[in-house]
Automatic annotation (TrEMBL):
Keywords attached to this entry: FAD, Flavoprotein, NAD, Oxidoreductase
TM regions (residue ranges): none
PANTHER family recorded: NADH DEHYDROGENASE, NADH DEHYDROGENASE-LIKE PROTEIN RV1812C
Species whose genome carries this gene: Saccharothrix saharensis
InterPro entries: FAD/NAD-bd_sf (IPR036188), FAD/NAD-binding_dom (IPR023753), NDH-2 (IPR045024)
UniProt name for this protein: NADH dehydrogenase
An annotated Gene Ontology molecular function: NADH dehydrogenase activity
Gene3D superfamilies hit by this protein: 3.50.50.100
Length: 441
């Protein structure tokens, strides 16, 4: 007689981003009662839909509406708010530093590595001190308040040099994140200027710095050129094939000899695999990602799975041309991998074979501010309002949960009739400042 398991299979998912949350959501829908327990570990109690961060920063979407509370949607899962610091598959244990600072271990039978990538930085003097990232909802909120507060300060000073510094905004990195962040924030700032009598659009200096010869490599070269042309028509200076040598104290020096001062330097120059993976005994590739089969099983480790930005999943749509091709870290793959991953895990628990992941690249869409965009879909290129509408339609379709889809749609509708919100809530960065002053008076 076959042995009967006395306890449910313990499934631990490390990472609560798009892959982690949607994998857990799929598992809680497909697993039978008592078949398995699912634990999701992430430093944040929410999932962030990162493609909407630029619009959240620019005031088109309420920031709370681009995050999904994990405990609210994963009602049949155990959500742990903590940072995984080590994975020891030999012992089948994950070490986690919890939110209150103490450390616990979580044992597993099935492990899912769903860690997200982090910002890739370079040893540029001044970057750690003055650079601002754009990977989290906190950074998006901070950027919004920061940019609007520079307008407030610039309108309040008579010092022309200080005003020029305050109104100089730099984005380093010409990928999707950098271009959309630049375009949305510039659009917001230009809209806000109507409320500042002493400031003109020509007073602002927006700058893009990209190390390669083109922007947004995911779209066609022609659309990349078109995007640069549109940005420059808006007065944005685009430096291509250019690198930043230093930015100490906000003094930006480019390798072509250009120098200027800026109070706002946004870093979006690429991503890299989460360094926590180096504290594991999982097989990694040369870029620090977990090596996987096409079914998203970790090579050589039964019961271990990986997907998303930090996984090296073979891209079967390209392996005929390049046998070493792996899926690029983007939202398209994260969305589709997570849906198949949940099905594959359930299939193996029930003695069935998992399916290989195959997704042919459909194209890319990007928003460049209100009513502006570019799209490269099925080999067809779109510009302007049509591309902007396609960008919004695509991302609201993949925004998790009906609740959040509805809230984002309402935000867009309100902005259509009442315009962008241009209020800087800078006090949230120093919430006790006024109270401290009161106690000392």
């Amino acid at each position: 007689m076959a042995a009967v398991k006395s306890q449910p299979t313990r499934i631990v998912i490390v990472g609560g981003g798009y892959v982690g949350m949607y994998t857990a959501l799929g598992l809680q829908k497909k697993l039978r009662s008592g078949e398995a327990s699912v634990t999701v570990i992430d430093p944040q109690p929410h999932m962030t839909y990162q493609p909407f961060l630029p619009e959240a920063a620019a005031g088109s979407i309420e920031p709370r509406h681009v995050v999904v509370p994990l405990r609210k949607v994963l009602k049949r899962c155990h959500v742990v708010t903590g940072r995984a610091t080590r994975i020891e598959h030999e012992r089948k244990a994950v070490t986690v530093e919890l939110a209150d600072g103490h450390v616990e271990e979580y044992e597993y039978d099935v492990l899912v590595s769903a860690l997200g990538a982090i910002s890739r930085t370079l040893p540029i003097p001044g970057l750690p001190e003055v650079g601002i990232g754009m990977k989290t909802i906190g950074e998006a909120i901070y950027l919004r308040n920061h940019v609007l507060s520079r307008l407030d300060q610039a309108a309040s000073t008579n010092d022309p040099e200080l005003r020029k510094r305050l109104l100089s905004f730099v984005v380093i990195g010409g990928g999707f994140a950098g271009i959309e962040t630049l375009a949305e924030l510039e659009d917001m700032a230009r809209y806000a200027l109507r409320y500042y009598e002493g400031l003109k659009q020509s007073d602002m200096h927006w700058v893009l710095v990209e190390a390669t010869g083109r922007i947004m490599p995911e779209v066609s070269a022609r659309l990349g050129v078109y995007t640069v042309e549109q940005l420059e028509k808006r007065g944005i200076k685009c430096y291509l094939d250019t690198r930043v040598k230093s930015m100490e104290g906000g003094h930006v020096v480019l390798d072509d000899g250009t120098e200027f001062d800026s109070d706002t330097i946004i870093w979006t120059a690429g991503m890299k695999a989460n360094p926590m993976l180096r504290n594991t005994d999982l097989p990694l590739d040369e870029r620090g990602r977990v090596r996987c089969t096409a079914a998203m099983q970790v090579v050589g480790l039964p019961g271990v799975w990986a997907a998303g930005d930090c996984s090296a999943v073979p891209d079967l749509s390209r392996t005929e041309e390049d046998p070493t091709a792996t899926c690029v870290p983007n939202a398209q793959h994260a969305i589709r991998q997570s849906k198949l991953l949940a099905k594959n895990i359930v299939a193996t628990l029930r003695g069935k074979q998992p399916k290989d992941y195959f997704h042919k690249y459909l194209g890319s869409v990007a928003g460049l501010g209100l009513y502006k965009g570019v799209a490269d879909v099925f080999g067809l290129r779109f510009k302007g309002v049509v591309a902007w509408f396609m960008h919004r339609s695509y991302h609201v379709m993949f925004m998790p949960t009906v609740n959040r889809k509805f809230r984002v749609f309402v935000d867009w509708t309100q902005a259509l009739f009442s315009g962008r919100e241009v209020v800087a809530l800078g006090q949230i960065h120093e919430p006790k400042a006024e109270f401290d002053r009161a106690t000392k008076s």
